[in-house]
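fwd from M.: "can u put these together and see what the complex looks like"

so here's what she sent:
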Amino acid sequence: MKVGELAQVARCTVETVRYYEKEGLLPAPERTAANYRRYVQAHVDRLRFIRNCRALDMTHAEIRALLERIDHPAGDCRAINDLLDQHIEHVEARIGELRQLQDQLVSLRQRCRNERPIDACGILQGLAAMETEVRPPRPSHLG
Amino acid sequence: MKVGELAQVARCTVETVRYYEKEGLLPAPERTAANYRRYVQAHVDRLRFIRNCRALDMTHAEIRALLERIDHPAGDCRAINDLLDQHIEHVEARIGELRQLQDQLVSLRQRCRNERPIDACGILQGLAAMETEVRPPRPSHLG
DNA sequence: GCTTGACCCTATAGTAACTTCAGGATGTGC
DNA sequence: GCACATCCTGAAGTTACTATAGGGTCAAGC
C-alpha cells in the first residue's frame, strides 16, 4: 500500500501522513526499490487511531501518550482514563469561555442597531470603552 | 511612558507591544535619545482597543479592518456591524463543534469506568474502532 | 522507444499570534 | 563604580499542518 492509498483510507492528505512519520507518531515503513513508502495493515490501524484522536481535538502530545501506553502496556489504564478526563475538562472550559465571549459579542452588537457614521458607531465605542481584561494564557489548546 | 509601563496598563507583555508595532497594529512611537520607545495617551487607547478585540478572539485581520475604519472614517458603520455579525457566527459555530466533540468524548469515557489492563481499556478500543471522520478544514479561526 | 500524466520523493518556507532566547545597551539606587 | 531592572534588536521556537520547488518513478498509449 502506497502513501496515497493510505491517506485515502485514513481520510487525510499524503503530506499529513509524511508529517506524522517525521513527528514519530506513525512508524516509518519499509521502502520499495524506488524509495516509495510501502505500508501494511498495522499502519492503517495506527493512522486511523491517530486521526480519530485528532478528530477529538487531542494534541500530538496527548496522542503520543496514548500510543506509548499501547506500545508498552503496563499496569492498568488509569492514566488513559485520566488523560481523557483532562481532555474533557479542556473542552468544557473552552465551551464556557466561548459562551461568555458570545454574550459579550452579542451585547456589543446591540450597541449599534442602525447604520451610523463611524464616529457614532456604538460598537467601536464599546470596544474602546471595555475594561481591558487580563487574557489568561490559554489553559486549553483548543483555541 | 516607556514600553514596560504601557504593557502594564494594557495588561500584556512588552514583547506583545513590540510585536503589534512590527505588525503595524500599533503605530511606532517617538524614541528617546537612548532609543527607548516613548508612548503617549493615544497609544494607550489604541493598545487597549486592540487588546479588547483580542479578548473577544478577533484575528489581527479583523482588528486591522476595524482600525482602518477608525483611522479613515468614511460612510456609515455597516461594515463594522457586518464584521461583528460574522465574528459572532464564527464563535457560535465553534461552540456547536465543541459541544458535539464533548458528547463524543463523554461517551468514549463511559466505555472504561474501572481500571483495566491496557489491552482491555474500553477507551483505547473505542478510539481504534471509531469511524474515521473527515476533518473539515476549520471554517473559523477559533481553534 | 517516447511521451504524458498520475503519483512518489526531499527539503524548505509559510500560517497565527505570539513567546523565548541570545547578546548587548541604558538608567537608577547605593 | 557596581548591581539590577529595564530597554534594544534579531532570530528562532511553538502547533499541526499546508504549500511550494525541484525532481524521480511508473503504467498506458502511440
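replying to her w this: Residues 2-4, 14, 18, 34-37 of chain A lie near DNA strand C (CB under 10 Å from a C1').
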